[in-house]
Design a protein that fits this description.
The structure holds two protein chains of two kinds. Chain A is α/β, with parallel strands linked by helices. Chain A has two domains: 2-221, Rossmann fold, CATH 3.40.50.300; 225-294, Alpha-Beta Plaits, CATH 3.30.70. Chain A is built from eleven helices and 14 strands. In chain A, strands 6-7-8-3-9-10 form a six-stranded mixed β-sheet, with helices on both faces. A four-stranded antiparallel β-sheet of chain A has the order 2-1-4-5, covered by helices on one side. In chain A, helix 3 packs across helix 4 and helix 4 (106-119) crosses helix 5 (135-147). Chain B has one domain. Helix content of chain B is 83%, strand content 0%. Chain B is elongated. Classes of the chains: A alpha/beta, B mainly alpha. The A-B interface holds A 11, 45, 48-52, 70-71, 73-74, 76, 78, 80, 82, 84-89, 93, 97-98, 100-103, 145 and B 2-3, 6-7, 10, 13-14, 17-18, 98-110, 255-258.
Chain lengths: 319, 258
Amino acid sequence: MIDVQGLTKRYGRTVAVEDLNFSVKKGEILGFLGPNGAGKTTTMRVLTCYLPPTFGKVSVAGFDVMQEPLEVKKHVGYLPETPPLYTDMRVYEMLAFAGRIKGVPGSELKQRVQRVSEQTSIADVSNKIVGHLSKGYRQRVGLAAALIHNPEVLVLDEPTAGLDPKQIIETRKLIKGLAGEHTIILSTHILPEAAHTCDRVMIINAGKLVAEDTPENLTARLQGFETLNLLVEGPEREVRERLSRVAGVNNVTPSPSSNGRVEFAVQTAKGRDVRKELARAVVESGWGLLELRPVGLSLEEIFLKLTTTDTAEKAAGGA
Amino acid sequence: MRNIWTVARKELSSYFHSPIAYIILTVFAVISGYFFVSILSLFVRQSLMAAQYAEMGQSVHMNVNEMVIRPLLMNVSVISLFLVPMITMRLFAEEKKTGTIELLMTSPLTDLQIILGKFFAALLLYAILLGITFLHALLLFHYGNPDWKPLAVGYLGMLLLGGCFMAWGLMISTLTRNQLVAGLLTFGLFLMLWVIPWVNDYSSGVSGQVASYLGITTHLENFAKGVLDLRDAVYYLSVIGLGLFLTARSVESVRWRA
């Protein structure tokens, strides 16, 4: 459905996106993860034919963005970070206008407006002026406008930004419900959301693709046994000291304890599995080992790891 | 075509949803009404004097067209100079500022459709303005006997002049996100174009003629007299064409700078 090869976008000397390659299958939900300025919005703008790429071949729904941009636009619904809404119009007028310019035939217009209003739960504010709506409602009107022409592809830039938890859950449900019929690319900072909603996740940093996989695979890939949580019954300082002496342990961090039990987060060197040694150390010292478990890296940690290690490595490499 | 009309309609309803249209129409109505009354009063006084001369056997040529309609149209063109920037300054500047330009440019519309839609909406608003003066003209027909053909030509000239104003106001509006800057630049440009031929008084020969040709209201004079001169029509159409062409290039460049 979407095919991106070697996408590069430069503004003069600044490189926003460099040699990006990815594809999205029909009905899939792809998540874009990345720090601010990583190039997510730029990539989305290229996909929606707002910007032309400097290099590379991008095709959406079978149409090339440079050769047939009008066709691409007919098949794509775009929700930018700030929903582009005319604040002096009423909601239904806004949706009708969006429908008309996106090619919805006049006979279907009213029905489409009703349908997307129901889908995004804005039917009750249909007569209100857009400028008077709260951020949550505006976001939903923006989403409705993106859906109005029933596009095959949806490109959503931070669709849940600024929504309250209840609205986030509803939007998430809505997006998941749209998949299958529609192909969706969404960018987000809210990493648990990417993990819950997306089939696949791409992590972008400084214009380059850093990682791409399903959320589960990414977590597994980076998990290892490098972080372990121990619940020990014993004196905090001694336990801590004993654990630190185990070979391969980099760091032991105790957490606030209750009735003699202390929880320790133990960081080890990459690739070292020291569970046996830790267990032995605790038990042989006569303390109670109540719990020993590896902590999987959350997507957040993966994200930070990949995006900050990257810059640290780059800095080290450059230095 | 449908897209052009959709954009035009949206733009027009936007004008009437805000105070802009009403303020402009009111101010224009008041000022042009004042001019109409003044010019007509002068004409009436002069007709009385002419009547006296006629009694004494001398005839004085009195022509409603020449003495009322023509000065009216010239005055209206000058008022437009000041009011038009108010009409055009928001056309693209507001879209850029609120981000709705992204909606327009990611929808299956060509840039030209967007530009023409806005152009026609602004021109239509200007035509409504002219419509107010038309009411004054109707009064003349009721009480007098002016020639309608020169009047029609005069209005054609006014519309062409309006087209110029709109095209260039639109162009300048694409240059900035700030409406005020757009308005000021537009006003400055029109002022220059209006003032250029005044140099004619001080200069002579070719430079004077060139300056005269460039003046935006000089070409209106023939129209106001009721003379449809192709050269004047060509001037206006060229200016409109150039304005729209530059607008199209400027809008295109948004994609390279975003």
